Amino acid sequence: MDSIRIRGGKPLYGKIEISGAKNAALPLMVACLLTEETVTLSNLPHVADISTLINLLCQHGVKAHLNGNGCSSGRSVALAATDITSTEAPYDIVRKMRAGALVLGPLLARVGKAKVSLPGGCAIGTRPMNLHVDGLEAMGAEIHIEGGYMVAEAPNGLKGAEIRFDTVSVGATEDLLMAATLADGVTVLENAAREPEITDLVHLLRAMGAEIEGDGTDRLVVTGKKSLHGAEHRVMPDRIETGTYAIAAAIAGGRIELHNTDAELINAVLEVLEEAGVSIERTDDGLIVERDPATPIHGVDILTQPYPGYPTDMQAQIMALMSVADGAAMITENIFENRFMHVPELSRLGANINVHGRSAMVRGVPELVGAPVMATDLRASVSLVLAGLAAKGETVINRVYHLDRGYERLEEKLAACGADIERIQESA
Ligand code: EPZ
Hints:
It is built from 14 helices and 24 strands. The chain is an alpha/beta fold. About 50% of the residues are buried. The site of ligand EPZ has 24 residues, from helix 1, helix 5, helix 6 and helix 12.
């Protein structure tokens, strides 16, 4: 397994092009199952989860054509689900990437059946599928669990329904939204997630002929159609990648320009950075983040919440920054029950963090010191990279395949800004 070696303590100066959003691209790709015609997506990030999902879609019968080299303009993919040849999403793929389970609603809506593996738990929590299942059952599907699979049928098609989520769920909102576009009648989704990735999905579905109202709000109203057609769509910029590099500039000090993105998407993160003493300038195509390495970071309390609140996918990164703050910060994780796997690893670098239930008390230390650490999930891994940029001496992050799932050319982008970072390839 590859690892990443960082020699910390260098301020960062330069420009970074932000890639297309992984968490937008995955549901957008799944939406191809809703039509016989071709869906073409551009600004696709070049990350491992995208390839995993292409494999899953291909085994459902989708024909996929990838173009471009994955540099700043992004790759594009043309996906044609002319014939669905298999309705089974196997455990081997879904357990690795939970977004694979999003095929449940679209397959049921398009062909009336699906057999999709339960994703199981993962490093950040149990991550159940009950909201997806309950919603599809309310739309007339019959679903039972057999051998670890959700076996679903809707022989007479799905019917519009009024569904109220008791927890805000990005995935369940996306799954039911896609299913509703081909249901008979009107579906109302209440307490729907409002993440920008959902709005991006609404834009594609509309371009495919779907009738949807309420995007950007917690109430989505979908009038089902008999069929949808092909469309072209550009994947939105990755707000989590944007926020991650903003924190890189904050923790290492220096000045980084982030291009091809939109500061508005991560306002909650930028407000915290400004409160911590980091300078942010919003520009036409992104932002400029600046901190004089001699200026201290102030401790700021953080509470993760559904959008537009502070994102859970930026919790580990801000914890790395708060580890070197002048003061203390209380970080509370409200979305997942077990998303503090980075704490023992940050502690290995000298951070002073105590976890009490869903909250972590971070007491800033004057400096971190490099050490070998282990990546446990995507955002935990990148928090170790950020900590390594600030730490004195050498930090080696092992098991970086987690990073490759969601960050495109991470070490190249940081090295271009002056970071001393390199990938150590696994020896054969
Ligand atoms: C999406 O996961 C993202 N993944 C996650 O990003 C992100 O952390 C999460 O949303 C929250 O913002 C993708 O978009 C591919 P949820 P998702 O359903 O949709 C509970 C990353 O690092 N819940 O919004 O799976 C669930 O347990 C990843 O890029 C139920 O109770 O998350 C959690 O507590 C990690 N029942 C809460 O809802 C359900 O049926 C929110 O989860 C579904 C979810």
